[in-house]
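Give me the 3D structure for Calcineurin subunit B isoform X3.
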Amino acid sequence: MGNASSMLTQYDIEEVQEHCNYLISQQEIVSLYQRFCQLDRNAKGFISADEFLSIPEFALNPLSQKLLKMVDGLNFKDFVAFLSTFSSKASLEQKIELLFKVYDIDSKGKVTFKDLLEVLRDLTGSFMSEEQREKVLSQVLEEAGYSRNCSLLLEDFVKILGKPGLKIEVEVPVD
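Predicted structure for Calcineurin subunit B isoform X3 (175 residues):
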């Protein structure tokens, strides 16, 4: 599985579907497999960071460098599991967990003010000054009951972002 010359069997499809908690349909898995094989230019069975950057939507994303650390070297099953987080069927908690991983720059299981500032810097570019970014982040953290000296854990992210009425939806085109 994952090699352009191999075929995806029904067993493979069902295994991948189970691996991604049935968030992706069998038809979508077949389409994703075709896309995966196109991206896996050397038919190695996994996609490198450079191959991911060949996806225009991914390359243009201001967070692409942070996402690359999560996707570099994914095999097909993990590729589908990663993309399943963007499905409308994924739970809010699954989406929040992905966001947490994006913000957890050093992968230590906590997000600091500095981490939040770095991501906000990537998102806003020259549209905000450093002073404005710090002020906005300090205010958001304070409103959520945290200070800029706190380190946020995944549970904190869930508490802040998992409020009723909050909806996080990002659809990723299959083709």
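The two ends are 19 Å apart (CA to CA). Let me know if you want a second pass.
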